[in-house]
Structures are given as C-alpha cells and as structure tokens.
Amino acid sequence: MKFLGLTQWVLAALLASVAVTASPVAPHDLEAMLETRSLEEIRRSSDDYLKFALKRHLPGLDFKIPRSYGGYISVNATNSADERQLYFFYTPPESDVGDDDVVIWINGGPGCSSMEGLWQENGPVIFPYYAANTSVKPYLNPYSTHKAAHAIWIDQPGNTGFSKAGLEIQGYGGIAKDFSGFLVNFFKEFEHLQGKRLWLTGESFAGAMIPYIAHHIYEHPKYYNNRGINLKGIHINDPSWADNTYMEQLPAFEYAKHYQKTLTITDAELAKVERKIKKWGLNTFVEDHLKYPPKGPIKAPSGWNSSVYDVWGNLLSFWNGAHCSSVYDITAKCPSPLDPLGYPLDAASPSATNIFNNITGFKAAIGADPNRTWVECTSDNWVDIGEALPQASVMPSVIENSERVIIGGGDRDVLLLTNGSKLAIQNMTWSGHQGFQVKPSGVLRTAAGQRGTYHNERGLTFIEYFYAGHMVPQDDPAAGFKTTKYLLGQIKKLSNPSNTS
Ligand SMILES: *[C@@H]1O[C@H](CO)[C@@H](O)[C@H](O)[C@H]1NC(C)=O
Ligand SMILES: *[C@@H]1O[C@H](CO)[C@@H](O)[C@H](O)[C@H]1NC(C)=O
Ligand SMILES: *[C@@H]1O[C@H](CO)[C@@H](O)[C@H](O)[C@H]1NC(C)=O
Ligand SMILES: *[C@@H]1O[C@H](CO)[C@@H](O)[C@H](O)[C@H]1NC(C)=O
Ligand SMILES: *[C@@H]1O[C@H](CO)[C@@H](O)[C@H](O)[C@H]1NC(C)=O
Ligand SMILES: *[C@@H]1O[C@H](CO)[C@@H](O)[C@H](O)[C@H]1NC(C)=O
Ligand SMILES: *[C@@H]1O[C@H](CO)[C@@H](O)[C@H](O)[C@H]1NC(C)=O
C-alpha cells in the first residue's frame, strides 16, 4: 500500500473505529496504552509493529532511551517466515521535525555490524571509548539521527552482527536483493512509514553496497513504490565506492606530506619514496590532476601500478611503529582507549568484553537473539564476484535518479583518502558532464568554527571533514548531524556557525 492521501486517512480511521478488529493505519500511542497494560502484554497480543516495541529501561543504563523498536525481519519479500532475517533497531523522531523522512544507516565490512553506528556514531545512546582503569559512561546523544528523521540501523548482509542467514550472498547484486526484500517486509510491518522519503546512509564498505542497493530499487520503480518504498537519495562517508588506485595509491604521497608529523614520517623517509615515484609523477598527482572542470580523463601513470610500487603501503610502513596509531583516526592519542564494543576494533572473533555479550539481558532487551554471540565484523557472509565498484558502474545513474547524493570524507582516515574521492568524482561523468565544474570552496561550519568544506553540483554533494577520521559522526558529531539535515533538505547550507541550523 502506498502512502495514504488525506481522504483515505479519514476513511481508514473511520473504518478502524467501527470495526474493532481492523488493524490500525496510524501510529499507536504506545505511551497511552502502557498506562493500562504492560509492554509484554502489548507485545504478546499485537500482530503489528507493536510486537517490536522495546522497554525504555535497558540493562546497564541508568536513564531511559527514547521510544524504540527492535527485532528480526525476513529478507524474503514473498515469504516473511523465511529463516534469513536481518536485525534492525528503529527510533522514531520525538517531534514533527523529521516525520516525513526515514534514514537508514549501515556500517561496512562487508560483515561489520551496524551496532557500531547505532551505539557509537549516530544512535540515541552512545557508549564511548574510555580510558583504562575507568569505566564506560553511556550517554544520550544530542546528535542522534532520530532528532532529524525516523532512524533505523540494520545489521546486513545476513550473518552480520545480530542478523541470521544460511546462504552466502553473491556479490553486490545479491546484497541489494536481500536488503530490498527486507525493506519490503519492514515497510509492511511499519505501515505508517510507507511513502515517506527514504534515505540510505552509511560508511566505509557501505559505500560499495548502498549505491548497488539504490540502483536495484531505482531499476524497479513500480514494484518498490507500490510497497511504500520512496527512495530519495544516499549518503556515504569514507566510502569504498572507487577502486584503491584512487582511494589509496594516487593521493598517498600528498597525504603523507600533509600529515607528515602526525604520521611520524621523517624527511629522509619521505625523500626516499619521492625518489622512487617521481618518474611517474606520483609525488604531485593530486595537484597535477585535480582540476575544475577536469581537463579530460584522469589516467594512472603508464608503467606503474600498485604491484610495481605500492606508494601507500611503503609510506604506511614508516608509521606503523608509532604509538597508539589507528588507521581510522591517525590523530588518536596514547594511551589507546578501550572500546566497549570489544577490542580490537574489527576483531573477527567474539570479545568477552563488550556491552552486548556481557551486560546480562541487554541483547534480549533490544530484541536481539540472546543466544547469538555478537561479533563486530565477520567475513563469512559474502562472495566477491568481481563487479565493478560504484564509481565505475552504478553511481552516475544513482545520482541522476536521486534528489540528493552525498559523498563525505574524513581527512584523518588513512584507509580511504578524501583526495581519492575527489579524484574519483572528477573522473566520473553524470548528468551530462564530467566531474565538478567549479572547485569546492563552500565552508562547513558548526558552533566550533570551520570543520571542513563542501560543494554541490548536479545532485551530488561532496563534503570534506577536517576533524574526522573514518567514523565521521563519532569523530565530529555536530558536523555529521548537520550533514544529515542537509541531506534531508532541512537546512539549505552548511556554513552557519550553528550545530543544528
Ligand atoms: C522465498 O521463499 C519462497 C518460499 O519458501 C521460496 O520459494 C523463494 O525461493 C524464496 N525467495 C528467495 C529470494 O529466497
Ligand atoms: C590500569 O590497570 C592495569 C591493569 O588492568 C594496570 O596494569 C595499570 O598499571 C593501571 N594503570 C594505572 C594508570 O593505574
Ligand atoms: C590533497 O591534495 C592537495 C593537492 O592538491 C594537497 O594540498 C592536500 O594537502 C591534500 N590533502 C590531504 C588531506 O591529503
Ligand atoms: C578514468 O576514466 C577513464 C575512462 O574515462 C579510465 O580509462 C581511467 O582508467 C580512469 N582513471 C582511473 C584512475 O581509474
Ligand atoms: C602491473 O604492471 C606490471 C608491469 O607493467 C604488469 O606486469 C602487471 O601485470 C601489472 N599488474 C596488474 C595487476 O595490472
Ligand atoms: C564487561 O566485562 C568486562 C570483563 O570481562 C568487565 O571489565 C566490564 O566491567 C564489563 N562491563 C560491563 C558494563 O558489565
Ligand atoms: C536460546 O537457547 C535456549 C536453550 O537452547 C532456547 O531455549 C531458547 O529458545 C533460545 N532462544 C532464542 C531466542 O532462540
């Protein structure tokens, strides 16, 4: 069913009030129902989305979380009982602000749980890193996405985080089909969200998956529109959207120069690499090729590839000895903080010390399977079948079909470089032109001052964050939040010295 028009709402409301058993079309007032019945009773007796309602007191927290829903929904659009189910957590907006928009967040990997985004980046409650010999101090996040939209975090593809799946998924196409199947079932359960403006957002490897998911939905407009899925655009931060030649190799030397002190690279080490790569022009590649408008195709130097000389790897080898370095945020300080999701950050094996596995009752309280050991990242759920990354395949058409697309880059991330996304944009043709025609110069500001730059042309916005690494909303929460509001069209520019407007 599509979004109901006003007369249909009135009609449906009338029908609901005469027929006692009719399923409701408008959101329930759960708080009012809770005055007379327990949440358990409501969940047991409900055949609609209230069965996903969560308690507002979670074990381990001494404050109430905003009203939220969590649980499992199948990826099979024609069989909601299919065992392949994705875990989701959903927090509606607290006011009318954002009631027209649904924002979904997914993390990367493939196989990294979106619980990282939910509980450490842009969810209603943050479990921050903490210092040794202290304890983690969770807090309510003033920059949670639910302050701007209906916010949903999904563990996908199957077998990621709390999600369950039997089969190995084939390629981005397989990921897109499963995810879209989940969406169809999700919007069936949460009927009042049908027709609202939908935005897919995420970071890292989500930058490879999200454009393919969007492409799949845009390729079948009638099928998805009829099911209330009204996709408007995407937002990917520090994304694996283009090949590593762009994202690591070509901009590596200028990155090392820019952050030479932070990366503890000596003048002699830098000079040694420069002597090696000068003949290919790789010491000044960004400066020489990043032009607005572009001067033609941007080609990697002939005779060079990363097997001939690994620029990025060689430069990083000088830095690896440095104390407390993190590839996700090269400015991380000593001593290394502890991560309540389990250390090391992307462990592929369960850690005894994380909030999900060691706060008794936490998993059940958020609607996750208590028998499942949560792991931040797993790798046994996806098969790479060699599809081209979005920059060289689906991205132009995704931008052309969207109201707005944002690509972001946190400069302190040494895994996927901001200058790499800039080069990749300048070598991509969408809406009739190659690259941006005008040099990005818009100022991204928050109450803390300038935090980066941004630029928008022909439906694509690029944002550079000066004070963030790989996890933008975690590293610069106000800047990350403003960007979400900009995506949704709630603010028209990013230059106001304010955290919200
Ligand atoms: C969905 O479930 C039906 C019934 O079990 C099955 O025939 C179909 O193959 C499944 N579809 C997918 C995409 O797995
Ligand atoms: C913190 O605790 C660890 C043991 O868990 C100990 O080795 C270390 O010395 C302590 N550090 C401080 C500053 O007390
Ligand atoms: C990006 O490239 C430019 C050269 O065009 C350079 O001046 C700048 O320092 C680079 N920035 C980073 C973060 O690498
Ligand atoms: C830029 O695009 C052209 C095609 O227009 C392609 O031949 C070239 O390899 C691309 N550059 C990079 C660095 O991938
Ligand atoms: C890299 O370049 C070398 C030398 O030209 C060539 O032998 C090799 O096949 C290339 N590797 C890739 C992955 O293209
Ligand atoms: C989780 O477990 C670790 C040890 O296994 C303990 O140090 C930590 O306090 C526990 N955290 C919570 C919130 O229970
Ligand atoms: C967890 O395992 C127990 C014991 O095997 C079982 O009784 C229970 O139903 C399981 N819970 C879920 C949610 O699968």
TrEMBL record:
<protein>
    <submittedName>
        <fullName>Alpha/beta-hydrolase</fullName>
    </submittedName>
</protein>
<keyword id="KW-0325">Glycoprotein</keyword>
<comment type="similarity">
    <text>Belongs to the peptidase S10 family.</text>
</comment>
<feature type="signal peptide">
    <location>
        <begin position="1"/>
        <end position="22"/>
    </location>
</feature>
<dbReference type="GO" id="GO:0006508">
    <property type="term" value="P:proteolysis"/>
</dbReference>
<keyword id="KW-0378">Hydrolase</keyword>
<dbReference type="GO" id="GO:0004185">
    <property type="term" value="F:serine-type carboxypeptidase activity"/>
</dbReference>
<dbReference type="InterPro" id="IPR029058">
    <property type="entry name" value="AB_hydrolase_fold"/>
</dbReference>
<keyword id="KW-0645">Protease</keyword>
<dbReference type="InterPro" id="IPR001563">
    <property type="entry name" value="Peptidase_S10"/>
</dbReference>
<keyword id="KW-0121">Carboxypeptidase</keyword>
<keyword id="KW-0732">Signal</keyword>
<dbReference type="Pfam" id="PF00450">
    <property type="entry name" value="Peptidase_S10"/>
</dbReference>
